Amino acid sequence: MTDEYPLDKMAGKILSIKKSALELKELAGGIEAVDRNIERILASVKMLEINISDVADIG
């Protein structure tokens, strides 16, 4: 499976999304609506990490 898909590139993009979300949260300065939505984004990113990044580390 790891030969069929560019897991390293995918893992890198996931990390980039996570970093961007955390930067946005910092920029928002406590705006509640942004904070709540960032938490949802980070939960989705966590699922991507479990599905892709963890497999990329194994492969």
Can you walk me through this structure?
- Helix content is 83%, strand content 0%.
- With 59 residues, it is mainly alpha-helical.
- It has one domain.
- Helix 1 runs antiparallel to helix 2.
Give the beta-strand count.
Answer: 0
**Count of helix runs:** 2
Averaged pLDDT: 90
Subunit arrangement of the protein: single chain
Principal-axes shape call = elongated
* Distance N to C terminus: 9 Å
Reading the helices and strands in chain order gives HH
- The gyration radius over C-alpha positions equals 13 Å
- Unreliable stretches (pLDDT < 50, length at least 5) are none
User: What structural category characterises the helix and strand content?
Assistant: mainly alpha
Strand percentage lies at: under 5%
Largest sheet: none
Helix content: over 70%
Please tell me the total number of domains.
Answer: 1
SSE diagram, text form:
Blueprint: H1 7-28, H2 32-58
Helix pairs in contact: 1-2
Structure described in brief:
The chain has 59 residues and is an all-alpha fold. The chain has helices at residues 7-28, 32-58. The protein is elongated.
